[in-house]
Amino acid sequence: MNNTIKVAYAHCDGPCGIYDPASARIAAEAALSMTKKILALTPPEDKADPQAVAAYLNTLSRYVAIKEEQAHLAKTELLVLWTDYFKPEHLEKYPNLHDTFWQAAKLCSAVKVELSLHHAEELMEAIEEIHNIFWETKGRKVDWVTAG
Amino acid sequence: MNNTIKVAYAHCDGPCGIYDPASARIAAEAALSMTKKILALTPPEDKADPQAVAAYLNTLSRYVAIKEEQAHLAKTELLVLWTDYFKPEHLEKYPNLHDTFWQAAKLCSAVKVELSLHHAEELMEAIEEIHNIFWETKGRKVDWVTAG
Amino acid sequence: MNNTIKVAYAHCDGPCGIYDPASARIAAEAALSMTKKILALTPPEDKADPQAVAAYLNTLSRYVAIKEEQAHLAKTELLVLWTDYFKPEHLEKYPNLHDTFWQAAKLCSAVKVELSLHHAEELMEAIEEIHNIFWETKGRKVDWVTAG
Amino acid sequence: MNNTIKVAYAHCDGPCGIYDPASARIAAEAALSMTKKILALTPPEDKADPQAVAAYLNTLSRYVAIKEEQAHLAKTELLVLWTDYFKPEHLEKYPNLHDTFWQAAKLCSAVKVELSLHHAEELMEAIEEIHNIFWETKGRKVDWVTAG
Amino acid sequence: MNNTIKVAYAHCDGPCGIYDPASARIAAEAALSMTKKILALTPPEDKADPQAVAAYLNTLSRYVAIKEEQAHLAKTELLVLWTDYFKPEHLEKYPNLHDTFWQAAKLCSAVKVELSLHHAEELMEAIEEIHNIFWETKGRKVDWVTAG
Amino acid sequence: MNNTIKVAYAHCDGPCGIYDPASARIAAEAALSMTKKILALTPPEDKADPQAVAAYLNTLSRYVAIKEEQAHLAKTELLVLWTDYFKPEHLEKYPNLHDTFWQAAKLCSAVKVELSLHHAEELMEAIEEIHNIFWETKGRKVDWVTAG
């Protein structure tokens, strides 16, 4: 089976070679935005009005679900970079690489679990750091541009 | 129920307000990359070697699946912009908006169905045009930067 | 590469040719049903009973999630028709086609964001109109039958 | 916790009450259509032309993936009916109900695993039978209309 | 087409032959755990504090969503065993097989719809019974080990 | 917002606390099984018989898709353990933890990209090692039992 493996290895350098930390950044921006919107919501004054209560809960539970989804997506996109893009030679140059990604992934979980503006902003900073490392390994200078 | 509707409308301007054509662009770049890689594949010379044939088909059918997935993702991301971000006032300023998105969506389908470098590149151009319209509506100047 | 493209074009007329507005209709019916059920829910009288509160919120947040999912599915199914089934020749005959789909997609978003019986019913009407256009283009007479 | 359970039970009759065998039927029609299209494909005459080979394989492996997805969706939709819609009282009236669904689900698997026109058509017949049982339990007469 | 069907049948015994009731068990354990956590939550004392209310609802609606997802996953995993692993010869030996799975699937739905510790525990018992039947058909003795 | 964060932190120890390396093991077993089945496939003798060719390609491309899905699932399940279960105190005791997971994740990618029995078996060994570390941190002795 040696020759099978050799044939396959030729394409081992990844599925498409298109990696871009912007995917994680967009998702983290959305999670940050939802965190802000949830913290800004006001429960209905009249707690005896079933429809006002339901409208508030409809909005809040949608926002929580979108925050969950986007923080999860940010985590998934970060882990794609860590497991697929980064190679042993990068690890030599950036010896904290594993920990940088571990902490960033744990921040994604914190953004899901909590309603913490602080952690949502720390996640953005962590992704900016990864953006810088990533483009440095590519020998390119790409500005950190946010959509929000 | 009037007041329910009013409460809800206050958040009607979308789930998080974070839109970025970069999501569609990254997916389209990946689909273009896979198109190129598929067109560059060479079938095994010895068609009687079951494992060489299987290795070739393993690579090719993975590449086709990734192209499909990424072209589909590009389409989904484009349609999010069209249905959620763009509003009637944009349509007045860009009267071809509907058709621009329809053609771009049809290009995504073409990139799935075909192995066409030409259509994959046209899709990139369509997304660049949408990128320009999008940031113009935001009153911002954002460069068109690709990852590939 | 000319001949590659020609080979591929032969199958360009879509993946399977099976389109049916019933998919969007079923999802929209489910979203309408959830809207009604949410509006009919009554918060527990004893707001100091943690389990009664949790039971109410369990039901309500599940209903909101199902409404979200089904309204999203309705949108996805509508956009499949718009991007894959409808061709330039249909556009000539139905010059409002783009706007019909755009408005219907925006109604799907409204049904997600709001708790609006009115918009959920308007979505059903929009899908009925699309059902009629669709079957007319096929030269068939298919009754509008709902499941609910 | 008795009262929690009671509150919840009130909504126990399902998430939205909208069931329609048309969902399974549309998916099974798509799987049947893909089976036919795959069986009608012709491999390229010139097996030494890498791009003609790749175009054939692109088409074929997409079709297989769509057949897989649609047969799987048909199975999922059938199992929703079996587990959520049908109740013990229906089982009394239709004592073969369990077996009818088991055989239909196994046909979905056969349509995935095989390239069998025969099994894809048997699946359509099984869904028609389920359509008839379903609407009979609802006391309605709904015609069996296919999209293809 | 006879010979096509014959070729395909050779692989008809399933996609990979790896079945393990542990998948359903892990999901059901997670759903049971979430049920307990939801029932143990205390609403904020100060109902006028928007952020305390939002934090409580953030936690609760995430827990409900995870319970939903895990109970659904348990159902899906059980139905894979029922439709793909079990064959007519097993049905002869375990004549209640269909009903065992039907009841287990209905328990999954109950765990979603309700906040019932009782039903979440009954689901675990149903999966243990299926675990025993499954390994018996394999002629193996595998202990019932839980993660929680 | 201090008190919001405090409320949320109380549940910070994860969504449900149910972790089990069996999920990753089952997926890796399935990927190993598919690798073996693909390597054992024989192309049709008569390459001029379109239906025999299509039947072979139907089987092979389904197997490749299932291998892809299962290797991906193994990766996802491993990364859940790494990002959510393991805490800084575990890292002190297992200083190679990051690298163990990185290598295991890269093996998942190799199993997707290649047709390598060797890498599929190495992945099983990597998961067995993680199984041992995991249960050691829990202070439990759980046997390594495979389904295949």
Structure description:
6 copies of one chain form a homohexamer. By secondary structure, chain A is mainly alpha-helical. Helix content of chain A is 72%, strand content 0%. The first copy, chain A, has helices at residues 2-9, 22-40, 50-85, 88-93, 97-113, 117-137. The model of chain A is unreliable at 1-14 (pLDDT under 50). Chains in contact: A-B, A-C, A-E, A-F, B-C, B-D, B-F, C-D, C-E, D-E, D-F, E-F. At the A-B interface, helix 1, helix 2 and helix 3 of A face helix 1, helix 2 and helix 3 of B.
Q: Helix and strand layout, with pairings?
A:
The structure is a homohexamer of 148-residue chains.
Chain A: H1 2-9, H2 22-40, H3 50-85, H4 88-93, H5 97-113, H6 117-137
Number of strands of chain A: 0
Q: Which residue ranges of chain A are poorly predicted, with pLDDT under 50 across at least 5 consecutive positions?
A: 1-14
The radius of gyration over CA of chain A amounts to 20 Å
Spatial gap, N to C terminus of chain A: 52 Å
**Multimer state:** homohexamer
Order of helices and strands of chain A: HHHHHH
Overall 3D form of chain A: elongated
What's the average pLDDT of chain A? 90
Largest sheet of chain A: none
Strand content of chain A: under 5%
Helix share bin of chain A: over 70%
Identify the most extensive interface between protein chains. Answer: A-B, 38 and 38 residues
Structural class of chain A: mainly alpha
DSSP helix count of chain A?
A: 6
